[in-house]
Amino acid sequence: MRTLAPHTHNPAGIHLLRDSGAIAKLIATAQPGKDSLVLDLGAGPGTLTAPLADTGARVLAVERNPEFVRRLEKRFADRTNVRVVRQDLRRMSLPHRPFQVVASIPYALSTFLLRRLLGPRNTPLQKADLVVEWGFARRITSPHPRDLDTAWWAARFDLRIQQRIPAKLFTPAPGVDSAHLTVRAREGSRNGRTQQALWGLLATTYASKGAPPLRSVLANLTNGKRVHRLGKGLPTNADELTPDDWATLARRLAAEDVQLPRLPAQLERR
Ligand SMILES: C[S@@+](CC[C@H](N)C(=O)[O-])C[C@H]1O[C@@H](n2cnc3c(N)ncnc32)[C@H](O)[C@@H]1O
Q1: Which of 10, 18, 64, 129 has the most ligand 1 atoms within 8 A of CB, as the residue to mutate?
Q2: Which residue stretches of the chain are H helix?
Q3: Are residues 132 and 207 in the same domain?
Q4: Where does the Ribosomal RNA adenine methylase transferase N-terminal domain lie (predicted)?
Q5: Ligand 1 pocket, Cβ-based, cut-off 6 angstroms
Q6: 143: CA distance to ligand 1 center in Å?
Q7: Arithmetic mean of pLDDT, 219-231
Q8: Complex ipTM
Q9: Are residues 173 and 42 in the same domain?
């Protein structure tokens, strides 16, 4: 395979992780079991596919570059637990059975893939260990999510940076460092009413101009008597709530006898 010199035009985002320590940490943190289905999205030459396959998990290695696909097919020809899928990540359909993702994803598709994996109410995603651009990881793990998408993901999934991965550990080196980001479902986050409550709270907050007081967000969803009780112990302004706070508030609101808004159609689809 022709290797790219650092900083040449590389629209496909090919940056191969070359550090055995970082790779081992990624796999050890992801802990795939023998019964797990693991998606390696943007598998390249099989950098992560190989150690994942060694765990005994069933691995789907998705890649669109024909040369990488050929190499993957050859490398894993006699591994019954690896399936190479030649597919564009922007068009692939996700499995219906529960799965986890362990992948060094193309930077350019980060938002698209997280939306796809974390957005739907009934996503089959169990957990993910992702290598993403450092700045992207910092933005989506911020204690005060700056947009509705991020707030929706972070209040349902615990998003955490495990380690910084310096650019020099990739070939070719990208212009910026990366992060190992872990995504773990929060307890109770799959409950239908809790998700409706959360959506109602976040959609009201992020549709407002400026930072609305939390009590006006709550008043939009329930009556005056409950507003005070539900907001107890939480910040006064909605933009000061952390993803933990939103998750707590959504559980409280879901437990009340109130009518909650439906989720938008795109969150009902997988
Ligand atoms: C950051 S590299 C990671 C490669 C390998 N997993 C590693 O860790 O060394 C991203 C990979 O995604 C692939 N890729 C980029 N865009 C893609 C797309 N739209 N669909 C499928 N694969 C894509 C690239 O060909 C590349 O192999």
Answers
A1: 64
A2: 20-30, 49-54, 66-75, 110-118, 134-140, 148-156, 192-207, 214-219, 224-230, 243-254, 265-268
A3: no
A4: 22-187
A5: 12-17, 42-44, 47-48, 63-65, 68, 88-90, 104, 106
A6: 29
A7: 91
A8: 0.99
A9: yes
At how many degrees (to 10) do helices 148-156 and 243-254 cross?
Answer: 70
One domain for residues 64 and 177: yes
Burial of 149 (0-12, 13-18, 19+ CB in 10 A): middle
Same domain, 258 and 149: no
Alpha-carbon distance 12 to 67, whole Å?
Answer: 13
Number of domains in the chain: 2
pTM (predicted TM-score)? 0.94
Query: How far, CA to CA in Å, does 24 sit from each of 27, 192, 261?
Result: 5, 36, 44
Q: What pLDDT digit, counting tens, does each position of 195-213 carry?
A: 999 999 999 999 988 889 9
User: Interior CA angle at 19 toward 18 and 20, to 5°?
Assistant: 115
**Cα separations (Å) of 173 from 25, 44, 63?**
20, 15, 20
148, 203: one domain: no
